[in-house]
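Hi all, long-time lurker, first post. I run a small reading group and we've been trying to get comfortable going from sequence to structure in the token notation. Rather than ask abstract questions, I figured I'd post a concrete chain and ask someone more experienced to write out its structure so we can walk through it together at our next meeting. Sequence below, copied exactly:
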Amino acid sequence: MDQFRLIIKCPQQNMALRANDASFTTNDQVISALNEQSQAHSEVISQIFSEISKSIVGQKDVVEKIMVALISDGHVLLESVPGLAKTLLAKTISDVLGVSTVRIQFTPDLLPADILGTKIYKKSSEQFDIEKGPIFNNFILADEINRAPPKVQSALLEAMQEKQVTIHGETFALSAPFLVMATQNPIESEGTYKLPDAQVDRFAMKILISYPSIDDEKSIIARFASSNESLVNPVITSDKVIELQKFSQSIYVDESIINYVTRIVDATRNPQNYNLDLKNAIEFGASPRASLWLIKTAKALALIHGRGFVIPEDIKSVAHEVLRHRIILSFEADVNKISADQIIDTILENIQIS
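-- Answer (accepted) --
Happy to help. Here is the structure in token form:
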């Protein structure tokens, strides 16, 4: 295990050195085989990113993190102001991956049956038939999820968790892959129903979409003004997506990485144990789901980068998206305008891998 820690610190150089080492162990061989498979998968994923860029300008980190969520079989909560191409992003990714997508506009008058489906009486057959709702698609864009009443939010979140839907006593499995991208507008609160913290915790990642840079906005204008529509082509199929999800589970995670993750999450609950002056800023720390999703998403990120093992930088790269919606801030933090991201930055700066 100590030998693997050397690989973590300098993976490419040390893997090359260990390949010529006479003491090449079985564990090293497994990692080497995982690396080869990851690199092959990574080339396909690079093609996906390249195809997506034909339609989406910039937002590379957002696209990567959505792919991380998809590969780790999690769901995403997107937060941004209106007009930043969330719908286009969802449609583009689904088109490139060859899966079905649907956009549901959440409104106060929406009912659970509008999402899940219901039974409808057919006079011709004199019986009730199941009418499946839009949830029976691979990609669900739940636009402005906080505008729907709690019972609708709960119906969607239950489907996310269970990966199945029960309609009048009949249970139907949802098609794989299944990804929910729910959006929230951070600047409007009128006519909205705040998602309960326990339900927000069900999202693997919370991704913030920022405004494009000046150069990116120029490119957006140029594309919009052009008569040529940017069409994307399917790169893979849903079966390949499922294959990536299954392979991601086999990515190697060293015990030192697991210890690193548990200490990061524990620091959100007991900051005083790590000499961090954050106790008054945090009302409740991250749940055990945070630890699980830090590992799962880090595995997916390692796969995207063509590695068969997780390194500390993978954990740091996904930490904000995994933790920011799981840390409940205190009133004092709100008053002092301390954000969850600032707390995460402080924790990552002070918690070192051992």
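A couple of things your group might point at:
DSSP finds 15 helices and eleven strands in the chain.
The longest strand covers residues 117-122.
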